[in-house]
Amino acid sequence: MTTQALVATRVAELRDRIARAGGVGVGIVAVTKNFGVDAWSDAKFAGCEAVGENYAQELIAKSQQVNRDDRLPVHFIGQLQTNKIKSLIDLVDVWQSVDRAPVVAELVKRHAARATVGRCEMLLQVNTTNESDKGGCDPSEATALVEQARQGGLDVTGLMTVGPTDMDPVKTRAAFGLLRKMATDLGVKQLSMGMTADVEIAVEEGSTLVRVGTALFGQRPRSI
Questions:
Q1: pLDDT digits (tens, 9 = 90+) for 42-83
Q2: CA-to-CA distance for 68 and 153, rounded, in angstroms?
Q3: What are the DSSP calls for 89-138, one per residue?
Q4: What is the Cα–Cα distance from 224 to 203, expressed in whole angstroms?
């Protein structure tokens, strides 16, 4: 079986997992960090909705090898450094890891300076597990950050979170349930939550986007 066919089979298996958990219309963001550029084309062939990248330089390198019309939308899901946004502003379709005021301000600035008119879509990353080593704003900061982004012309379409490191199912469900409630309160529809190990809980709690890598591409290499 070719790599392309294998990924397509795994995507079909993932969609079955989502369906059995009650998910309807849940998008798959294929996490392609540390995989070669072929992962982008494999994900597109398999019918994924987007690819997710964590590192600026890796995203830039891949984007130079694939015509924009031939690739899926790119979601940036890694920790965002403000000094990287300028080089990524025309490459990223959805910013999933916006979590603090300086990042919002830099996105507003760079979006306003773009030569082409268009949307700048973002999801606010929220730390719903209260783990100090996780990215994401404190839940209490979410309203102010969403308002800052909206006033700056950014299109805030949803929220994103990462489940607990220990993958405890009770804590995982609580974290995802909190994000769902926050999305309702903030009036946003997209909920990016759930990875390979906790897809079912995420879908049961209302996820609209799951971020999956190893279940599609296998063990992640250390570097491309």
A1: 999 999 999 999 999 999 999 999 998 899 999 999 999 999
A2: 24
A3: TTT-SEEEEE-SHHHHHHHHHHHHT-SS----EEEEEB--S--TTS-SB-
A4: 31
Q: For residues 104 and 151, is the Cβ–Cβ distance under 8 A?
A: no
Q: 66 near 41, Cβ under 8 Å? A: yes
What is the rounded average pLDDT for all residues in the chain?
95
Cβ–Cβ contacts within 10 Å for residue 179, how many? 28
Q: Is the pLDDT of residue 117 over 80?
A: no
The CA distance from 144 to 193, in Å, is: 21
Third-level CATH fold of 3-217:
TIM Barrel (3.20.20)
Please tell me whether the overall predicted TM-score, pTM, comes out greater than 0.85 for this model: yes
CA distance 15 to 60: 29
Amino acid letter for position 167: M
Take residue 200 and report the two structure tokens written for it: 């079912």
Question: 123 is written with which tokens?
Answer: 């999801």
| Amino acid occupying residue 91 | L
The domain spans of the chain are 3-217
From residue 110, give the alpha-carbon distance in Å to each of 53, 54, 69, 219.
20, 19, 23, 35
